[in-house]
Amino acid sequence: MGSTAIQIPNRLPLLLTNEGVLLPGSSVRFSVETSRNIQLVKSRLLRGTSVKSTIIGVIPNTRDPDSESDELPHLHRIGTAGIAVQVVGSNWPKPHYTLLITGLCRFQIVEVLKEKPYPVAEVEQLDRLDQYTNGIGELSDLSQQFYKYAVQLVEMLDISVPVVAKLRNLLDSLPKETLPDILAAIIRTSTNEKLQILDAVGLEERFKKTIPLLVRQIEGLKLLQKTRKSKPNDDKRIVAIRPFRRNNQVPGRALYLDTVEEEDDDDDGDDIIMLEKKIKNTNMPEQAMKVCIKEIKRLKKMPQSMPEFALTRNYLELMVELPWNKNTTDRLDLHAARVLLDSDHYAMQKLKQRVLEYLAVRQLKNNLKGPILCFVGPPGVGKTSVGRSIAKTLGREFYRIALGGVCDQSDIRGHRRTYVGSMPGRIINGLRTVGVNNPVFLLDEVDKLGKSLQGDPAAALLEVLDPEQNHSFTDHYLNVSFDLSQVIFIATANTTATIPPALLDRMELIQVPGYIQEEKIEISHRHLIPKQLELHGLTPQQIQIPKEATEGIISRYTREAGVRSLERKIGAICRAVAVKVAESQHKAANSSGTHVSEKEGKERVGEETKSESINDATDLAFPPEMPIVIDRHALKDILGPPIYEMEDIDGGSQQRQPGGEVDPGEKQRPGLELHSSTSPNHRCSHGYGTLMTAGQLIAAVTIGAHSGSF
Hints:
The longest helix has 27 residues, at 564-590. A hairpin with a 5-residue loop joins strand 4 and strand 5 (96-114). By secondary structure, the chain is α/β, with parallel strands linked by helices. The model is unreliable at 232-266, 595-623, 648-691, 693-702 and 704-710 (pLDDT under 50). The strands form six sheets. It has a five-stranded mixed beta barrel. It has a five-stranded parallel beta sheet with strand order 10-11-14-9-15, sandwiched between helices. A two-stranded antiparallel ribbon has the order 7-8.
């Protein structure tokens, strides 16, 4: 190493910092946020074209004023000339720069030449190693003593660590006169101790101030070794080299020795190493592995203060968490699947048959692609719950994606990572949540997708729902292909009129018609009534809803294709009964001294409560007998007067007359029944011509008729 090659200019721009101390031979990162320092970076470092322009003077223990109008503070008399090897700028959370500076030599300020826009001073170089000679008295002894302690310290570390091995080589290759500054920058020392070493211009004084620091570090390591003798495997890992952190300061890149016991669990360096191990252990495709390795190399070289550091780290964590080759094993027992589907849902034979067909084919062929189904039917018929039951039957994970009102194609494909706040799409996020690559995805309300300036999500779904393309689905955030061919996609819709033809062509349509009255009664007693009893804390010993009452609710209070309104009506009945039950229990607990009077009162009204129905609020004084049976009178008291009446065309009877039919549209959409009649032909008795009305609605009769009577 030619020491005479270090020659700094006589005039140097000054970087004022209060964050740390730069010693010759060490590298430290400094955050530049104040106005003078920012002007120094912009005018000197960013616009300079020569190596000389990158040499600046670093003045420690001096805080740069926040405003240019403030006077320059008292400067520390000794500084370090350094070369800026890296400049990184950022606008978040406010404009600032991060400088990586390597120290060259000491200098002394002779005179400050100017203070604005950044200070410039005339300096005198202090370190001239060619003036020292080897083997002169006490200086040579101090040098040998320092070298001995330095070697002893390094040998206590784990030599397999690359940084430790490099440090051991430096001890033999560098001149011993340069070692005090380098070792003082590495070991754990305070800012005041570093300032004392910086101010030690004489080499002898520098050795004398550094040797006690080495001895203190060695004694601390020996004491730590004694306390950890129970763990011999960890003897070589007692000390780790990590960035030294100070509160409210940007972490410096100078390396400090510290014990593993004092390391933070969330140390970024350790996290990056662990993340790299996870990437190598993840069985992801070759293309994705190459991208991850490239990004982890960029992450290691990236300063932590950059916003892109967090974005890259989040991206790599997502790549590790994705289930590239994790899947669940399908349950292929047809008999068990049929029993499970029948117990969860009544009717829906076409849906059940389609699931059983898929299971049968899976038994014959293992690598079968997942089907893409679309359940089309009116609201409330159980399309969503059937999708959940299918996942339960197959033994797969279930994930629901609500598409109603979605008008941004990024919800499907994700955002590109160039945008702030970018995220993966709902498909990739769903796979990350379930943790397997063969779940059941329910695309709910696919007919209610929107369209906006942000794109058409229905067009983005074309790749997802195409069996010939979804084996290489590319999310904008991932930017690598992911295999969706094993996913079972189930879309739900109320109508196919609003679904684009191209998207409709990629799905297998299965019509889900509305329920007839007999099916609703069976569904009520199998599923709805037990569910509502459990939700309201009631038991069959407290309330009974016979089939006649259920039929009355269906025909007089709800007219819909599904059973949602029916379930709400049953819930209203359960709440009314819950009030009666709660009040009866309260009165039974607080009226132990009034049993006789209550018994007489019950006998007085025994005839009125014989039907065990719920009457008006005046009956609350007398606890009802259990179970409470819901009859026609109870329905009227709880739900009010009937909303609908079963009437024919003539409006007189509640029974349909022969020849009347219900419009088939009733089975597909909620609303009133539309009746038609096949009455005999009629002839107008007045006017000209005749009017035939067979098989048409009454409303249509008056449109083409002349004035007259039938």
